[in-house]
Each structure stands twice: as structure tokens, then as C-alpha cells.
Amino acid sequence: MTDQKLYCAFCAKDQDEVSAMVEGPDVHICGECVRCCVETLQNNGHWPVATNESLRRGLMALAAYIGPICTSAVTSAM
User: Fold this and answer.
1) What is the CB-side half-sphere exposure of residue 5 using CA atoms within 13 A?
2) Cα–Cα distance between 51 and 64 in angstroms, integer?
């Protein structure tokens, strides 16, 4: 991270207001907004369901990286 404060491109919260911030090229999204995106995809049938162990482990690793806020969404997708 840089010395400059980072802000979520979706909700505009800064890095001190959220538990996790995912960085992309010139864009950031907080864990809370990732959770909302996952829930929206699940509700519309577009979130992948884990069909094998490696996919399940990958989704759980993502949830652990983003934080506990996302774990229930990823777990319910499996």
C-alpha cells in the first residue's frame, strides 16, 4: 500500500473504516462490498458452486484473505 489513503470504489469508505481492501490496478474494493457482490451473484444464480475440493479450497482461501465478513457467503456458495 502507498502512503496515500485508499478508498473503496463502490462505497467510498477509506482503508481505516473497513477490515480489508483488495487492490487492483488503480482501483480498490473493500471486503464489505465484495460480500455484497457475492450475495448479488448468488441471488441471481451467477456465483459458481464448488464442485470439487480444489475449487472449495480456493474459495475458502479467498474468504480468509478478505476476512470473516465474506466467509459465510463463500461457504453458502458451496
Assistant:
1) 8
2) 19
Three cell numbers written together for 4: 496515500
Q: What is the pLDDT of residue 76?
A: 47
Per DSSP, 11 falls in state T
The region, left, alpha or beta by phi > 0 then psi within -120 to 50, assigned to residue 53 is: alpha
pLDDT per residue over 13-63, tens digit each?
999 999 888 888 888 999 899 888 888 887 887 776 656 776 677 777 777
Q: Which three cell numbers stand for residue 36?
A: 455484497
- pTM as predicted: 0.57
CA distances (Å), origin 12, targets 32, 42, 64: 11, 24, 23
Distance (Å, whole) CA 39 – CA 77:
9
DSSP-based three-state secondary structure for 29? strand
Map grid coordinates 457475492 to a residue.
38
